[in-house]
Specification:
TIM Barrel; 8-stranded parallel β-sheet; globular; 8 strands; binds inosinic acid; binds zinc ion; alpha/beta
Protein backbone atom coordinates (compact mmCIF):
# COMPACT_ATOMS: atom_id res chain seq x y z
CA UNK A 1 0.00 0.00 0.00
CA UNK A 2 2.89 2.36 0.73
CA UNK A 3 4.14 2.23 -2.86
CA UNK A 4 0.62 2.57 -4.21
CA UNK A 5 -0.08 5.68 -2.10
CA UNK A 6 3.20 7.25 -3.16
CA UNK A 7 2.52 6.63 -6.85
CA UNK A 8 -1.09 7.76 -6.60
CA UNK A 9 -1.58 11.21 -8.18
CA UNK A 10 -3.10 13.31 -5.41
CA UNK A 11 -5.16 16.45 -4.85
CA UNK A 12 -4.45 18.48 -1.69
CA UNK A 13 -7.13 21.01 -0.77
CA UNK A 14 -6.36 21.86 2.86
CA UNK A 15 -2.77 22.92 3.51
CA UNK A 16 -1.80 25.91 5.66
CA UNK A 17 1.50 27.27 4.38
CA UNK A 18 3.16 27.88 7.76
CA UNK A 19 1.90 24.61 9.20
CA UNK A 20 3.27 22.75 6.18
CA UNK A 21 6.84 23.95 6.62
CA UNK A 22 9.27 21.02 6.80
CA UNK A 23 12.08 20.58 9.30
CA UNK A 24 14.56 21.07 6.46
CA UNK A 25 13.12 24.49 5.71
CA UNK A 26 13.01 25.36 9.41
CA UNK A 27 16.75 24.64 9.58
CA UNK A 28 17.36 26.97 6.62
CA UNK A 29 15.35 29.72 8.28
CA UNK A 30 17.03 29.20 11.65
CA UNK A 31 20.44 29.49 9.99
CA UNK A 32 19.43 32.88 8.63
CA UNK A 33 18.22 34.13 12.02
CA UNK A 34 21.09 35.30 14.16
CA UNK A 35 20.90 34.82 17.93
CA UNK A 36 18.09 32.34 17.67
CA UNK A 37 18.12 29.46 20.10
CA UNK A 38 14.69 28.17 19.23
CA UNK A 39 14.14 24.45 19.38
CA UNK A 40 11.85 22.78 16.86
CA UNK A 41 10.66 19.24 16.75
CA UNK A 42 7.87 18.01 14.52
CA UNK A 43 8.29 14.35 15.45
CA UNK A 44 5.02 12.45 15.45
CA UNK A 45 3.38 12.61 18.83
CA UNK A 46 5.45 15.57 19.95
CA UNK A 47 2.32 17.69 20.07
CA UNK A 48 -0.43 16.88 22.53
CA UNK A 49 -3.41 19.16 22.09
CA UNK A 50 -4.79 21.74 19.70
CA UNK A 51 -3.46 24.44 22.04
CA UNK A 52 0.06 23.01 21.71
CA UNK A 53 -0.29 23.02 17.92
CA UNK A 54 -1.09 26.71 18.05
CA UNK A 55 2.04 27.28 20.13
CA UNK A 56 4.02 25.69 17.28
CA UNK A 57 2.42 28.01 14.74
CA UNK A 58 3.48 30.93 16.92
CA UNK A 59 7.10 29.73 16.87
CA UNK A 60 7.07 29.17 13.11
CA UNK A 61 5.64 32.64 12.59
CA UNK A 62 8.68 34.08 14.38
CA UNK A 63 10.81 32.58 11.61
CA UNK A 64 8.55 33.64 8.74
CA UNK A 65 8.40 37.26 9.81
CA UNK A 66 9.71 38.67 6.52
CA UNK A 67 8.77 38.43 2.85
CA UNK A 68 11.92 36.50 1.91
CA UNK A 69 11.10 33.71 4.37
CA UNK A 70 7.46 33.62 3.30
CA UNK A 71 8.65 33.23 -0.31
CA UNK A 72 11.14 30.51 0.67
CA UNK A 73 8.63 28.54 2.72
CA UNK A 74 6.00 28.69 -0.03
CA UNK A 75 8.48 27.49 -2.67
CA UNK A 76 9.73 24.65 -0.46
CA UNK A 77 6.20 23.54 0.48
CA UNK A 78 5.18 23.42 -3.21
CA UNK A 79 8.28 21.39 -4.09
CA UNK A 80 7.60 18.96 -1.23
CA UNK A 81 3.99 18.37 -2.26
CA UNK A 82 5.18 17.98 -5.85
CA UNK A 83 7.72 15.36 -4.78
CA UNK A 84 4.91 13.50 -3.02
CA UNK A 85 3.02 13.26 -6.33
CA UNK A 86 0.45 15.92 -5.54
CA UNK A 87 -0.80 17.17 -8.91
CA UNK A 88 -3.14 19.88 -7.69
CA UNK A 89 -2.55 21.93 -4.54
CA UNK A 90 -4.64 24.58 -2.85
CA UNK A 91 -2.53 26.46 -0.35
CA UNK A 92 -4.03 28.75 2.25
CA UNK A 93 -2.34 31.28 4.48
CA UNK A 94 -3.10 34.18 6.80
CA UNK A 95 -1.63 37.43 5.46
CA UNK A 96 0.50 38.79 8.30
CA UNK A 97 2.02 42.22 8.91
CA UNK A 98 5.27 42.53 10.90
CA UNK A 99 6.31 46.08 11.64
CA UNK A 100 9.97 45.35 12.48
CA UNK A 101 10.71 43.80 9.10
CA UNK A 102 8.40 46.02 7.06
CA UNK A 103 6.27 43.10 5.92
CA UNK A 104 2.69 44.17 5.22
CA UNK A 105 -0.29 41.90 4.63
CA UNK A 106 -0.12 42.94 1.01
CA UNK A 107 3.58 42.17 0.56
CA UNK A 108 2.97 38.86 2.34
CA UNK A 109 0.42 37.85 -0.30
CA UNK A 110 2.69 39.13 -3.08
CA UNK A 111 5.48 36.85 -1.82
CA UNK A 112 3.20 33.82 -1.76
CA UNK A 113 1.94 34.53 -5.28
CA UNK A 114 5.45 35.16 -6.59
CA UNK A 115 6.55 31.80 -5.16
CA UNK A 116 3.58 30.06 -6.80
CA UNK A 117 4.43 31.69 -10.14
CA UNK A 118 8.13 30.82 -9.80
CA UNK A 119 7.19 27.16 -9.29
CA UNK A 120 5.19 27.28 -12.52
CA UNK A 121 7.53 24.87 -14.30
CA UNK A 122 6.76 22.04 -11.89
CA UNK A 123 4.17 19.42 -12.75
CA UNK A 124 1.75 20.66 -10.10
CA UNK A 125 -1.10 23.16 -10.35
CA UNK A 126 -1.23 25.53 -7.38
CA UNK A 127 -4.01 27.86 -6.24
CA UNK A 128 -4.27 30.16 -3.23
CA UNK A 129 -6.85 31.00 -0.56
CA UNK A 130 -6.46 33.97 1.78
CA UNK A 131 -7.17 32.97 5.37
CA UNK A 132 -8.94 34.93 8.07
CA UNK A 133 -7.71 34.06 11.55
CA UNK A 134 -10.68 34.19 13.92
CA UNK A 135 -8.38 35.52 16.66
CA UNK A 136 -7.63 38.69 14.72
CA UNK A 137 -11.04 40.35 14.70
CA UNK A 138 -13.43 41.52 12.02
CA UNK A 139 -11.46 44.61 11.04
CA UNK A 140 -8.57 42.43 9.89
CA UNK A 141 -11.15 40.12 8.31
CA UNK A 142 -12.38 42.96 6.10
CA UNK A 143 -8.79 43.93 5.28
CA UNK A 144 -8.10 40.36 4.22
CA UNK A 145 -11.17 40.36 1.99
CA UNK A 146 -10.06 43.62 0.35
CA UNK A 147 -6.69 42.04 -0.37
CA UNK A 148 -8.34 38.93 -1.77
CA UNK A 149 -10.47 41.12 -4.07
CA UNK A 150 -7.44 43.11 -5.15
CA UNK A 151 -5.34 40.04 -5.95
CA UNK A 152 -8.30 38.34 -7.55
CA UNK A 153 -8.20 41.17 -10.09
CA UNK A 154 -4.46 41.01 -10.68
CA UNK A 155 -3.95 37.23 -10.22
CA UNK A 156 -7.46 35.88 -10.88
CA UNK A 157 -6.13 32.54 -12.03
CA UNK A 158 -4.30 31.94 -8.73
CA UNK A 159 -6.49 33.51 -6.02
CA UNK A 160 -9.60 31.37 -5.76
CA UNK A 161 -11.08 31.78 -2.31
CA UNK A 162 -10.99 32.44 1.39
CA UNK A 163 -10.59 30.37 4.53
CA UNK A 164 -11.64 30.83 8.14
CA UNK A 165 -9.23 29.28 10.60
CA UNK A 166 -7.34 29.94 13.82
CA UNK A 167 -7.90 28.66 17.34
CA UNK A 168 -11.52 27.45 17.29
CA UNK A 169 -11.95 28.19 20.99
CA UNK A 170 -11.38 31.90 20.39
CA UNK A 171 -13.95 34.36 19.01
CA UNK A 172 -17.18 33.71 17.16
CA UNK A 173 -17.28 32.75 13.48
CA UNK A 174 -20.62 34.57 13.10
CA UNK A 175 -18.84 37.92 13.44
CA UNK A 176 -17.31 37.24 10.02
CA UNK A 177 -20.57 36.45 8.21
CA UNK A 178 -20.81 39.86 6.45
CA UNK A 179 -17.21 39.48 5.25
CA UNK A 180 -17.87 36.04 3.81
CA UNK A 181 -21.15 37.13 2.22
CA UNK A 182 -19.30 39.86 0.39
CA UNK A 183 -16.54 37.41 -0.57
CA UNK A 184 -19.17 35.19 -2.17
CA UNK A 185 -20.58 38.14 -4.10
CA UNK A 186 -17.08 38.78 -5.45
CA UNK A 187 -16.90 35.24 -6.75
CA UNK A 188 -14.50 33.97 -4.09
CA UNK A 189 -15.08 30.42 -2.88
CA UNK A 190 -15.28 29.65 0.84
CA UNK A 191 -13.45 26.85 2.67
CA UNK A 192 -14.28 27.29 6.34
CA UNK A 193 -13.03 25.45 9.42
CA UNK A 194 -16.29 24.49 11.11
CA UNK A 195 -17.07 22.37 14.15
CA UNK A 196 -13.43 21.49 14.79
CA UNK A 197 -14.59 21.59 18.40
CA UNK A 198 -18.28 21.53 19.44
CA UNK A 199 -19.71 24.89 18.39
CA UNK A 200 -23.46 24.53 17.89
CA UNK A 201 -24.33 28.24 18.13
CA UNK A 202 -22.05 29.50 15.39
CA UNK A 203 -22.26 26.46 13.11
CA UNK A 204 -25.90 26.73 12.03
CA UNK A 205 -25.50 30.30 10.86
CA UNK A 206 -22.22 29.61 9.08
CA UNK A 207 -23.88 26.75 7.22
CA UNK A 208 -26.45 29.18 5.80
CA UNK A 209 -23.77 30.91 3.70
CA UNK A 210 -23.32 28.07 2.58
CA UNK A 211 -19.57 27.34 2.55
CA UNK A 212 -18.21 25.64 -0.59
CA UNK A 213 -16.16 23.24 1.55
CA UNK A 214 -15.85 22.54 5.26
CA UNK A 215 -12.57 21.96 7.08
CA UNK A 216 -12.74 19.12 9.63
CA UNK A 217 -16.44 19.30 10.62
CA UNK A 218 -15.53 16.94 13.46
CA UNK A 219 -18.60 17.69 15.59
CA UNK A 220 -21.21 18.17 12.89
CA UNK A 221 -22.97 14.82 12.96
CA UNK A 222 -25.25 13.67 15.74
CA UNK A 223 -23.05 10.76 16.82
CA UNK A 224 -20.28 13.24 17.62
CA UNK A 225 -22.58 15.57 19.52
CA UNK A 226 -23.63 17.73 16.56
CA UNK A 227 -27.25 17.74 15.49
CA UNK A 228 -29.62 16.43 12.85
CA UNK A 229 -30.04 19.82 11.26
CA UNK A 230 -26.28 20.22 10.63
CA UNK A 231 -26.12 16.72 9.27
CA UNK A 232 -29.09 17.23 6.94
CA UNK A 233 -27.86 20.60 5.69
CA UNK A 234 -24.39 19.33 4.86
CA UNK A 235 -25.79 16.21 3.22
CA UNK A 236 -28.39 18.14 1.21
CA UNK A 237 -25.83 20.69 -0.02
CA UNK A 238 -23.29 17.93 -0.58
CA UNK A 239 -20.68 20.26 0.95
CA UNK A 240 -17.32 18.52 0.61
CA UNK A 241 -15.46 17.85 3.85
CA UNK A 242 -11.69 18.31 4.06
CA UNK A 243 -10.59 15.53 6.40
CA UNK A 244 -7.19 15.45 8.07
CA UNK A 245 -6.66 12.26 10.06
CA UNK A 246 -3.25 12.82 11.65
CA UNK A 247 -4.04 16.43 12.45
CA UNK A 248 -7.20 15.50 14.34
CA UNK A 249 -5.48 12.66 16.14
CA UNK A 250 -2.50 14.74 17.28
CA UNK A 251 -4.66 17.75 18.04
CA UNK A 252 -6.80 15.34 20.08
CA UNK A 253 -10.12 16.47 18.65
CA UNK A 254 -10.90 12.79 18.02
CA UNK A 255 -10.12 10.10 20.63
CA UNK A 256 -8.82 7.63 18.03
CA UNK A 257 -8.99 7.14 14.28
CA UNK A 258 -11.67 4.46 14.43
CA UNK A 259 -13.98 7.20 15.65
CA UNK A 260 -12.89 9.74 13.06
CA UNK A 261 -15.73 11.48 11.22
CA UNK A 262 -14.36 10.17 7.90
CA UNK A 263 -16.16 6.88 8.54
CA UNK A 264 -19.57 8.49 9.07
CA UNK A 265 -19.50 10.66 5.95
CA UNK A 266 -17.71 8.18 3.70
CA UNK A 267 -20.29 5.50 4.46
CA UNK A 268 -22.98 7.97 3.40
CA UNK A 269 -21.10 8.46 0.11
CA UNK A 270 -20.71 12.12 0.98
CA UNK A 271 -17.87 14.07 -0.73
CA UNK A 272 -14.76 13.51 1.40
CA UNK A 273 -11.29 14.85 0.60
CA UNK A 274 -8.20 13.52 2.34
CA UNK A 275 -5.85 16.36 3.30
CA UNK A 276 -2.81 17.01 5.51
CA UNK A 277 -3.76 20.34 7.21
CA UNK A 278 -0.21 21.02 8.47
CA UNK A 279 2.18 18.40 7.13
CA UNK A 280 5.15 19.98 8.93
CA UNK A 281 3.68 20.41 12.38
CA UNK A 282 2.01 16.98 12.21
CA UNK A 283 4.96 15.31 10.52
CA UNK A 284 2.93 13.71 7.77
CA UNK A 285 2.45 13.73 3.99
CA UNK A 286 -0.41 13.19 1.56
CA UNK A 287 0.86 9.66 0.83
CA UNK A 288 0.90 8.84 4.53
CA UNK A 289 -2.61 10.22 5.01
CA UNK A 290 -3.91 7.96 2.21
CA UNK A 291 -2.13 4.99 3.76
CA UNK A 292 -3.60 5.79 7.13
CA UNK A 293 -7.09 6.05 5.67
CA UNK A 294 -6.59 2.67 3.97
CA UNK A 295 -5.41 0.88 7.10
CA UNK A 296 -7.95 2.48 9.43
CA UNK A 297 -11.06 2.16 7.29
CA UNK A 298 -10.09 -0.93 5.32
CA UNK A 299 -10.00 0.90 1.98
CA UNK A 300 -8.76 -0.89 -1.11
CA UNK A 301 -6.53 0.52 -3.82
CA UNK A 302 -9.54 1.26 -5.99
CA UNK A 303 -11.22 3.17 -3.13
CA UNK A 304 -8.12 5.32 -2.74
CA UNK A 305 -8.00 5.96 -6.45
CA UNK A 306 -11.64 7.07 -6.42
CA UNK A 307 -11.13 9.32 -3.41
CA UNK A 308 -8.22 11.04 -5.11
CA UNK A 309 -9.84 11.35 -8.53
CA UNK A 310 -13.15 12.60 -7.12
CA UNK A 311 -11.32 15.31 -5.19
CA UNK A 312 -10.87 17.08 -8.54
CA UNK A 313 -14.62 17.82 -8.45
CA UNK A 314 -14.22 19.78 -5.23
CA UNK A 315 -11.32 22.03 -6.26
CA UNK A 316 -11.89 25.77 -6.59
CA UNK A 317 -10.15 26.11 -9.96
CA UNK A 318 -11.75 26.90 -13.30
CA UNK A 319 -13.68 24.17 -15.11
CA UNK A 320 -11.10 23.87 -17.90
CA UNK A 321 -8.37 23.17 -15.30
CA UNK A 322 -10.52 20.45 -13.76
CA UNK A 323 -10.96 18.95 -17.21
CA UNK A 324 -7.21 19.03 -17.77
CA UNK A 325 -6.67 17.27 -14.45
CA UNK A 326 -9.28 14.62 -15.29
CA UNK A 327 -7.49 13.96 -18.58
CA UNK A 328 -4.15 13.69 -16.78
CA UNK A 329 -5.65 11.29 -14.24
CA UNK A 330 -6.85 9.03 -17.06
CA UNK A 331 -3.27 8.65 -18.20
CA UNK A 332 -2.02 8.04 -14.65
CA UNK A 333 -4.77 5.50 -14.16
CA UNK A 334 -3.57 3.24 -16.95
CA UNK A 335 0.01 3.62 -15.71
CA UNK A 336 -1.02 2.65 -12.18
CA UNK A 337 -3.05 -0.28 -13.46
CA UNK A 338 -0.02 -1.55 -15.29
CA UNK A 339 2.41 -0.86 -12.44
CA UNK A 340 0.26 -2.54 -9.78
CA UNK A 341 -1.39 -5.08 -12.02
CA UNK A 342 -4.86 -4.06 -10.94
CA UNK A 343 -8.10 -2.77 -12.50
CA UNK A 344 -8.83 0.60 -10.90
P1 LIG B 1 -0.52 30.28 8.05
O1 LIG B 1 -1.92 30.79 7.88
O2 LIG B 1 0.17 30.01 6.75
O3 LIG B 1 0.27 31.18 8.94
O4 LIG B 1 -0.61 28.84 8.74
C1 LIG B 1 -0.73 28.65 10.15
C2 LIG B 1 -2.10 29.10 10.61
O5 LIG B 1 -3.11 28.25 10.05
C3 LIG B 1 -2.33 28.97 12.12
O6 LIG B 1 -1.84 30.11 12.80
C4 LIG B 1 -3.84 28.85 12.21
O7 LIG B 1 -4.46 30.11 12.14
C5 LIG B 1 -4.19 28.09 10.95
N1 LIG B 1 -4.36 26.66 11.24
C6 LIG B 1 -3.53 25.66 10.95
N2 LIG B 1 -4.04 24.47 11.35
C7 LIG B 1 -5.24 24.76 11.90
C8 LIG B 1 -6.25 23.97 12.49
O8 LIG B 1 -6.19 22.73 12.62
N3 LIG B 1 -7.34 24.63 12.96
C9 LIG B 1 -7.50 25.96 12.84
N4 LIG B 1 -6.57 26.74 12.29
C10 LIG B 1 -5.45 26.14 11.83
ZN1 LIG C 1 -6.76 23.57 8.94
Amino acid sequence: MEEFCKSLPKVELHAHINGSVSEATIQKLLAKKKNSDQQFSFKKGSTGTLKECFEKFRLIHQLTDNTESVYQVTCDVIHEFHDDNVKYLELRSTPRAVQDTGMSRESYVESVLRAIQDCGDLDIIVRFLLAIDRRNGVKVGWETLRLAQKFQKSHGDLVVGMDLSGDPSVGDARDYLPVFREAQKSGLKLALHLCEIPAPEETMEMLTLPPDRIGHGTFLHTEAGGNQQFENTVLKNRTPLELCLTSNLIGQTVPNLDNHQFKFWYEKEHPCVICTDDKGVFSTSMSEEYQLAASTFDLKQRDLWNLSEQSINYTFCEENVKEKLRDQFKVYKSKMEEQFNIKL
